[in-house]
Amino acid sequence: MLSEHFAETSRHKTFYLAAGPADGPLIIFVHGWPELSLSWRHQLPCMAALGFRAIAPDLRGYGRSSVYRTHGDYAQEHIVADMIDLLDSLGAEKAVWVGHDWGSPVVWNVASHHPERCHAVASLCVPYYSLERGLDFVIPLVDRRVYPESEFPAGQWEYMRFYEENFEVVTKQFEAHPYNLVKALFRKGNPSGVMQPSPTAFARKHNGWFRGLPSAPDIPRDPDVVSEEDLRIYAEALQRNGFFGPDSFYMNHKANAAYAETAVNGGHLDMPVLFLAARYDYTCESVTSRLAEPMRAHCRDLSEQIIASGHWMAQERPLQVNAALTRWLAGKVPQAWPAWPDA
After folding, report:
1. Global pTM exceeds 0.85
2. Which of these, 107, 158, 143, 191, lies nearest to 292 by C-alpha position?
């Protein structure tokens, strides 16, 4: 059973889902774009059954958390502060943090700026020392075998440049039909795309995501990733809040890069780190490209595993993700493993 809660301070209100014993060790799951706490629906019950107190918040701008109306309000520094406030409200000193997509820069920044609040940190799809350091940092890591610079100056990250150059256009395209958008997005990985350009690389060429269409096309739902009920929950939340907040995560690369420079310990992570790379995620491609190389130089206790999935790994391959997390937690993070009384 998942329960619903709010953590509220004078600066922000965070909605979150919770499962598991109230006194269990904390594991906090942080979603990405354009998702919700719901995205961890397969992980929360699993971790709860092991004895963890499993938490999944809606990030600012999403779901039932606070919504803001300036781009700067969605810089990483503010989102990390939300997460520290959440941890404080839960009465805990530390947690295991797990992120995906834009939730990954959040948990990486929690770990690199507040290591004293972390037992360990894990990420799906987005490696450490990459996007949390801004767009200009990751462009030199683009695989130019797939993305010739003359054709794709920003590689698979061309869509992020499109946000910066045409924010109102892309936001209007998404808001035209949120249901069709999430239905089109939440799809399993396609092995035929290996060493082919990601669709995100064509955003500037096509003046948007949909090859000239004003909104997302109506294509069949992928039942291997999302149910009709869950799809409508996503769509209703995005319809209610709009896309200004979610899309503003892409408008703070310079501020995020400056924030990353303030990380402690020279940006090195000493706590246990797990990175789950998605074999068929062609935007956050970390299997054959150089995207994960800086992570390996800055994590002193790193575990890596490749999952045969697309970008929406936690929803497409929940059993594999849960098994990987459990194996890593039991073997590498014993200090955060649930303790059971002898009696």
Report:
1. yes
2. 143
